[in-house]
Amino acid sequence: MMHPSRQALVEDIRDDEDEEMGIDLASVPIDHDYLMPSGAAGVPSEKASAILSQFSRKRQAAKIAVPTDDGRVRARLRELGEPITLFGEGPADRRDRLRELLMVQAEAVDEVDGDGDMDMGEGEEGQQEAEEEFYTEGIPELLYTRREIARYSLPRAKERLAFQKLESTIPLRTHIKHRKAIKEKLQGFDLYGSQIAADRPVSIARFAPNGSIIAAGNWGGSIRLLDVPNLEQKKLLRGHKDRVGGISWYPGATLPSSDVSSSTVNLASGGGEGNVNLWSLESDTPISTLSGHSGRVVRTEFHPSGRFLASASYDTTWRLWDINTTTELLLQEGHSREVYTVAFNSDGALLASGGLDSIGRIWDLRTGRMVMYLDSHIAPIYALEWGVDGYRVLSGSGDGFVKCWDVRAVRELASIGAHKGGVTDVRWFQGTDGPASGVGVHKDEKGDVVPKKAGTFFVSCGFDKNVNIFSADDWALCKTLSGHSGNVLSADVTTDGKWIVSSGHDRTVKLWARDDGEGV
């Protein structure tokens, strides 16, 4: 028995515990009234009905089969009497607009059946297109081109692998000492000279293979050839009606050991009017024009063999051209927005493309397949550059980062905060002693393999008005080159590591070098 006063205290404690534990579900009354009074949820009945109607329309529109081919979408819009494209509209936006128009049309003529499905006039074929990948048929010459690229790239890849096997025998201590010496030399770079090269911003500047000429293109549509190191104008090339975006030198052009004549194709350029011009060094007008792009051409790059040329354009495609016949071999779709940059690897088997959709893509030119996504940037990709090893590629983006990707491991290797603003250009030092040079490994007097200089650093520029030099092993910043009064749009480095050039919004071309005039 418990004393009455003690029992009352225990009952009070139990009541408090029951309140803290909550209400027993068995004691909750069942309410069979499911109706909610108007405005009980804070939403007026008229607005709630409109929201439900909008959701219903979206569900019905999602069931409408719309072609995935942008050309067929445009044709269908033309049949409906609607504009085939609106300002700033991409292929995905265009498909959504067509789907909405078909939904409105269906509601107007009451063509929606009991299940909400609508026949667009394409039957089961349209249904399959919405679910399957689509392919663009290539011309017969494309098959021959892919075979030629395979014949060219496979022996080079074999030589590169043999080169890298010999490099793997170098002790780590030797590599560290070698890289330290190069970093010390890179820290000695400073402004050597500056020249106003145009009346408008200088969008791109590229060294000739021998390093004695700079080709500088500007927003006015002209290209100036400047000599090194005086930066005096040697020739003015006129052929574009709008801003020059890309400039690429023909492999081996200007080199004494090469058989490339100054009267043949020596460089290529892309313009805002959508054309790609091929230039010699003896004429101030293009010797040939490649037409086909419907938007601005932003970058052009020669294939290492010199037989082909790739161009990136604002028409959301990149294209491959035959230099000898000046014909378009490939129109490659895949990007959802404007394509800004393209780059070949040293073997010539792979091509990297990137643009304003913030996603880079690696394409195998031998098969036509995409083999890798570069998908961690959060802003447009403005620059791509392959390393001399053939399997690493750098990407520069408007998010201020330069990222290194490994195609073999299919992953991101490093993310470098390169600039406070967007990154506009990235150039990896190619050197003259890399696997693609054909020279072979160097050995010292003892017969030991000497580390190569090629690929030991890269140069980047951006909207923070600076040009930065980074080491390519630990990705450390070696030197910041300041001197531009506006955004820097392009940068390049000679193969001997003696000169660095940059250009930008301040309309100048600036040359950077060491005080002793030596390379790395």
Derived from helix and strand composition plus strand pairing, the structural class reads alpha+beta
Helical residue percent?
Answer: 10-25%
Query: Could you list the spans in which at least 5 consecutive residues all have pLDDT below 50?
Result: 111-130
Residues in β-strands, percent: 25-35%
Q: What is the CA-atom radius of gyration, in angstroms?
A: 31 Å
What's the story with the biggest beta sheet?
4 strands, antiparallel
Shape: globular
- Total E-strand runs: 30
Report mean pLDDT, rounded to a whole number: 88
Calculate the terminal CA-CA distance, rounded to whole Å: 98 Å
- How many helix segments? 7
Q: What's the arrangement of strands in the largest beta sheet?
A: 1-30-29-28
Give a written overview of the molecule:
By secondary structure, the chain is an alpha+beta fold. The protein is built from seven helices and 30 strands. It has helices at about 5-20, 45-60, 70-80, 90-110, 125-130, 140-165, 170-185, and strands spanning about 190-195, 200-205, 215-220, 220-225, 235-240, 245-250, 265-270, 275-280, 290, 295-300, 310-315, 320, 325-330, 340-345, 350-355, 360-365, 370-375, 380-385, 390-395, 400-405, 410-415, 425-430, 440-445, 450, 455-460, 465-470, 475-480, 490-495, 500-505, 510-515. It has a four-stranded antiparallel beta sheet, with no helix packed on it. A hairpin with a 4-residue loop joins strand 11 (about 310-315) and strand 12. The longest helix is centred in the first third of the chain and has 28 residues, at about 140-165. The termini are far apart. The model is unreliable at about 110-130 (pLDDT under 50).
